[in-house]
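Table S7 (text form). Paired inputs.
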Amino acid sequence: MRGFILSAALLCCICVGAYAQESKQVEQLDSVVVSVSRAGRNTPVTYTSVYREELRESAPTESLPMILGLQPSVVSTNEGGTGLGYSKLTVRGSKGSQINVTLNGITLNDSESQEVFWVNIPALNSILGSVQLQRGLGTSANGAGAFGASINMSTAYVSPKPYSSVEIGGGSYNTGTISVASGTGLTGKGLYGDIAFSLGTTDGYIRNAWAKVYSLMGIAGWMHGNNSLKFTVLSGNQHTGITWEGIPASKMAEDRTYNPAGKYKDADGNVCYYDNESDNYVQTHLQLNYTHHFDRGLFWSTTLNFTKGDGFYEQYKADKKFSKYGIDASGKADFITQKLMDNRYSVLNSTLKYQSERLNAAGGIYLADYLGNHFGKVLWDSVAGDRDFEWYRNDGTKRELTAFLRGEYRFADWLTGYAELQYRLVTLRMKGLDDEFSDLAYDTAWDFVNPRAGITGRWGAHKAYMSFAIGHREPGRSDLKEQIESVNALRAAGKEAEVTLRPERMFDSELGYEFSTPSFTASLNLYSMEYKDMLLETGKLSDSGYAIKENVDRSWRRGVELCAAWKPADWVRLDGNITLSTNKIKDYTYYEDTNDNQTNWKFIGKTTVNCGTVNMLMSPSSIGMASVGFKPFGGRDFIVGLNCKYVGRQYWDNTQNDDLCIPAYYVVNCKAEYGLPVWKGKLTIGAYCNNLLNRDYYADAWVYRALFADGSPEYIEEGLFPQALRNYSVKIRLEF
């Protein structure tokens, strides 16, 4: 660890590139809706950017969260152990539901869970022009409140010329990928069109971690003078094996690829696995944007968005009571069930942006309406055979109004002030029965005022900034659903209980310094994120893999982020970053489920366990990255790279039990790419090796604990997520 810190402190941070455009006007019209939600060079916000070139240089097996894993304070994991399938990331320990994600200014976070399921929009790196990752509260964003980070993505800007590309990749675990893209470029009449398709398949590392995913994007646009009109279609389809249960700790030494999903015994007592234990989802985004450039630096942009999602997951449930599914029959049987959902999300996003020599100002309004239907079906049981029986149905409607005003004013050539005010009004109505026949009736509204302010100074190669922001975020549907179920269970046990989940609040202070020259850059950032009523994960998962949360009165994340980059010669570049932090809950009280005995498992209430001040779960106190890149022949056509990621110890839950923690780990990856001109284009061949040192580690975990009134030993159930051992991939990309 000590050696890693010393090396990382001497190395860099972020690789940057440029995607040039022939016309500044074209770029402004095409990017104004994205730039409104992004930080500029003088905005006192902590951020990094990843551009088209770096996104294209990734291994074909890597999803976007895995590509972003080298950014400061980021930890990326994959449920199946490789890059394809269910992937996620944390930033400064903040989880997916606390990270606001936008594509072309429209939020991608699911309105109910506030999560982004990256597997639903695979191969994003092949269609994106750039990604800006803001740490902390950042700038105002639409949709679910950014509560630790935001990821602002944009599709590639309008190409001035026609282009086409095809990329074919393959790797370990029968992984295969293909991506094709083509565009007309901007024609003389101002018309343009782009289309891109990507397909990925893999068997995955652990059993049942197979994935079949594809994405399709189409863009049709028109630009004339000061006007731009663009229609975008983005559709993703995923068919994946269920892996969210993880692997019991007892199985890790015996078989680290074991996965209990779909396990049952046949009539002869033989262990079998259901072959369609799967998660299936189709999501399509339709966006229509109009942008107009008025005279004197004034831009108006309006986007209409409609998102439709449909999906289900199918499971084999062995030895369950008929009453569990509301079937009027006695005894038990094996069942095949589906839990289904369909949803629609409609958005109007309108912004006005002004640019002058001294003032950059923006304002906007965001209206959103979401309807999500949830229902379950029994398809088959081992007694009656095929069925088509619906056992539960519920739905939720969520509406949001967001408005903001933002301004950056340059008081002097070296000094810029920043101020922003955001207002959010959110309403939520839920009704119907869940899969446990618990009544989910709930109706509420929240409104939040979120101010931000800061100042930036620039002189020569130096930049310094400081900012302060206040943010609020409402509970998600899954958070409320789990507490409603708990409240109903307590009431059934004769206890008084109410739904008490509250919105969370954060005070974010950032203080940063950057030094930049053509050959060397370095930055230092101090942050303090102080929480009130934080919605914190407990370490438990719901039946569908959601992380169950609860409010904690007082908590904080405080740390220092160091980044550096050094280019001692044209043919070599060193990069590194490190985050050292403390992530604490003050006077934490844990409420553990208590049942009568291990035979009946009759719920009788909760037992209070006072833990004192503890570390937050899945929040390492040290994260670091070091990388080196070579261009042996002094040009861009041959690149060799090596990087190392270090992640410190992480606890499975918030009790700070040393027996329930992920040991610190580090992973080394390497790559080599060679490009050569062919015909009127370029052919690139790449080879990649992940986990070069063959480290045996796991990167994520959950745990469920229960007590018994009769004095039986505590019940502990856990799931660990091992990552693949040394694995390889290759790709060939042709561009012209």
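Next pair, protein 2 of 2.
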Amino acid sequence: MGNNILKYVFIIIVIILIGFGIYKMAKNDKEQTNQVLDQTSTVNTIQTDLRLAVCNFDTINPLLSNNRNVQEISKIIYEPLVTLNQDYKMEYCLAEEIAKTDDLNYVIKLRKDVLWQDGKNFTAKDVQFTMDQIKQGGFSSIYASNLKAVCQLEPIDEYTLKITLSEPVDFFAYHLTFPILSQKYYEGEDFATTGKNVAPIGTGMFQIKTVDSNVIKLVKNEAYWNTEKKPMAKEISINLYNSAGELYNAFKNGEIDIVDVKIANVEQYIGSIGYKKIEYKARDYDFLALNTTSEILSDGAVRKAISKIIDKNNIVASCLGAGYIASNFSLDMGNWLYTRDLSVQTNPEEASQILTNAGWEYKNNKWRKKTDAKTLELTFSIALNGNNTTHLKVAENIKNQLANVGIDVFVKELNQEAYLSSLQNKNFDMILTGITCSYSPSLRTFFGEGNLANYANSQVSEIMNVVSNASDENALYENYNKLYDQYLEDVPYIGLYRNTDVVIYHQNLAGNIKANSFNLYHNIEKWYRQ
């Protein structure tokens, strides 16, 4: 009898333990399902359709389109060989591996598990077709500069190809971010004019379902190869508008979930209630190039002192306003190799001490330095394009800041032709200019041979050679930090500011929303409406 009781108790305990285990497993599954959800949402309350927008639509074909909205949205339909994450770091996409065999040759191995949205296999022929269209298609693609140095493309087999360059390109793989289109889909068609451009197929997580004059409908690609990025959304509507005003009104009326805006004072158009805003550093970067071979600015102490006098926040507040932020380096846009803040704090007292230690003397509100041949006065000119009214205001601001500490500056306004000649021939003391920063972390524009500042430093040259061939992340971090140290010490350039862009989205849109200049739709597979 006693043994039977013990037996029944044991069975009951086992049943309880099994039941508790099943409960925990179910709870964990539910928690995992809801990891991407907002705290106030449940699986049953989310809406699985998203609403995006394009203003002044031209074509959905990403190689032909010149519309930034289209280029942004195309990333969820069409895919590149490599993509960039939120830190602008390269990640493989349709490419499985890229091997650099020497300075001019690369071998690319492609994924073998990718299907086009019509069910056909993705192969090297598609890559060759796409690159041929970009380079030789008879139209101007925004991706043409990506392939400027490519002189030969040779398929080796169905999933391998070789690229040969006409000249070495640092971080060349970063140039392979253009979308790939299907060779078979366009077979026998004129790529630029065919009616198939209404709804080209892709390999991405969404595909085009229908197209009309007001909306392009996308649906989830059920055969998408990347199982780690299966989207929660089942449908996406891309609403088309004829003007920014129409688009902003649609957003205000709740017809669009998220949009990129190009105006700093967006609140003036849509108010300030009911949506969230993400401001991120963008690619347009303005800076001063200091001619390190000119009579005055060849003195490193002078360059370093000037860098500590110019108040960049004052420039932004006085000359630019919203939509800009002080910046001292080209990679200061969230790049993964921008390893530390390179901001230089304004400190006129320290600048004065630097000049004094270098033999300059401050007397009668002027800085002078006696040499064996003559007495130098601390004065120089800033060249700029006189047609650029913003640069003119910035130069006048810098002139006034330096005048307050006894440094005379002349603002030299040049016409377009003279300005370009000065840039090419480097016949200036200092020039105010700007660039659109590349997605690549290459710094050869600033520190390579023939750079704008006529800057030469043996250690920097060695670093540039090392990083152009480095693949190890730790080696890159180490060498970029050495480069930053030398940059702050030698000051061949003084960064000023960069523009910022803004993404606005409704409060009912959730799912870890991120954005940068390369992709507004990072993590879109986690997005949903509630």
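The radius of gyration is 29 Å.
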